[in-house]
Amino acid sequence: MKTRTKMASIFFTSCLLIILLLGTAVYYSFDKYSHVDFDKRVQTRAIIASKFYLEKDTNKSEAYKMIREQFFEKLHKEKEMVIQLEPNISFNSYATKYHLPEELLFQVNTKGKATLRDGDVVYSGLKYKQGNKTSIVVVSAENYFTAHHLSYLRNVLLIAIALGTLLTLYLSIYFSTHIFDPVKKITDKVRQISTDNIHLRLDEPANNHEIGELASTFNQLLDRLETAFEIQKNFVSNASHELGTPLTVIIGEADLALRKERTTEVYQEAIHNILVQAERLDHITKSLLFLAQSGYQGDKPTREIVRTDQLLWDVKETFDRLSPKSHIIVDLNEVPEDPKRLKIMGNRQLLLVAFSNIIGNACKYSHNKPVTISIKATDSEVIMVIKDQGIGIPEEEISQIFNPFFRASNTQLFEGYGIGLPLSRNVIKMHNGHLQVDSQVGVGTTFTIRFPHILANKTM
User: Fold this and answer.
1) Which of residues 78 and 24 earns the better pLDDT score?
2) CATH class (in words) of the domain with range 304-459
3) What confidence tier does 436 reach under pLDDT thresholds 50, 70, 90?
């Protein structure tokens, strides 16, 4: 069953149940009120009748008679009886003689007054004593009005329930269709979107918060999918180029060497070129494998407590040894006194690779000008800032530098493959870190890396 049909059914059933309950409550409330009201009317007539029949004062008796005739409507089949009780006559005899319930006479004699229903007929009696004589005044009437009014009310309620049922059915269908119509439009629009037209977006209605939020969420998802497709296309294109170039050189050198006899020097040069391109191919392949592994969260690498300042010193020592021309300065002015604020939970080897890539790029693109590394900490984070004085990154390209194989437009004169920064970003993200880039062409680039330290992890 569709959600729209289910919602319409629930709405219809709920409203119909409410209508039936209200109709039943009105019917039985009116029924009870009518009987109680009729009982009181009969009781009032019994009091008037007793005053009329038993009052010794003739003037008062006539007054009661006038009140009864002028202000009281005669009830249906109304009867008035005055029974003089005799000591030797049973209630059964009186009941048979006057066609009254024996129980009524017994209750009136015991309690002084009583009201009794027998089907639609209501009996009300009062007991009066005048000297040694005891009398019972009984007024009876058939509750025709209640039966008639209840029948009319029942017919009205049945018609109202029938009309209410039809109206509820119409409203349930209308509202369910009206509510789910935007969802249906979204569904139809999403079905039209494929890899060929992934640029299409859903309309976001401004006057419908929930539907607008749903459409906005879908559009954000489509934005991410479109970006992922673009990255995939660029990755395939760039990877094909980066892998194809060394393979072409290797094949060309080997083919050239095999065409005819060459001198030893020519063979050595060809083998050297093949070796260089093979090493380049090996480096690209390993980098791609490392990049893929860094973005996979299935088997998380082993983690331990690592001091970030020690990692940075290790990277500096490595560059000082392998690239003596690099000029790396470690600024210790803001290092916290508590060493625990410098410690994070992480994989040492992966973090070394991430820091080495960022610092290596800083040295390479700054022509060995000073690269400053500073480290500080807050109550929750350890912050490392790597600042160079290099060529900078064009502002419109900063958002793309973490895409695999992407290289800024002003880096053509520098060797590289566009894999280091995406790899570093993945490693930092894997450690719940954050990487921020600020750059200005001709001035330099600043990388700010933030990690939650172990003290923050303990308080979370």
Assistant:
1) 24
2) alpha beta
3) very high
Tell me the whole-structure pTM to 2 decimals: 0.47
Instruction: Tell me whether strands 79-84 and 113-118 are parallel, antiparallel or unpaired.
Output: unpaired
Contact (Cβ atoms closer than 8 angstroms) between residue 431 and residue 449: no
The single-letter DSSP state of residue 112 is S
CA pair distance 6, 221, nearest whole angstrom: 29
Round to whole Å and give the CA distance between 306 and 419: 25
CATH 1.10.287.130 boundaries in the chain: 213-294
CA angle 104, 107, 108 (to 5 degrees): 85
**Can you state the angle between helices 91-98 and 102-111, rounded to 10 degrees?**
130
Instruction: Give 326-360 pLDDT, tens digit per residue.
Output: 899 999 889 988 888 999 998 888 888 889 889 99
Please give the pLDDT value at position 298: 46
Looking at 301-443, which runs of residues are DSSP E strands? 304-307, 328-331, 343-346, 371-377, 381-387, 434-440
Residues of 388-397 as b/e, b for ≥16 C-beta within 10 angstroms? bbbbbbeeeb
Condensed to tens digits (0 to 9), the pLDDT of residues 292-308 reads 555 545 455 678 899 99
Helix (H, G, I), strand (E, B), or coil: what is residue 119? coil
Please enumerate in sequence order all residues whose Cβ is within 8 A of that of 382, keeping only pairs 6 or more positions apart, or say none.
Answer: 308, 341, 342, 343, 344, 375, 376, 450, 451, 452, 453
**CATH for 213-294 (1.10.287.130, 3.30.70.270, 3.40.640.10, 3.40.50.10680):** 1.10.287.130
How far apart CA 397 and CA 198 sit, in angstroms, is: 23
Side-chain-side CA neighbours of 371 within 13 Å: the count stands at: 29
- 22-28 LR contacts (CB < 8 Å, sep 24+): 23/157, 23/160, 23/161, 26/153, 26/157, 27/150, 27/153, 27/154, 27/157
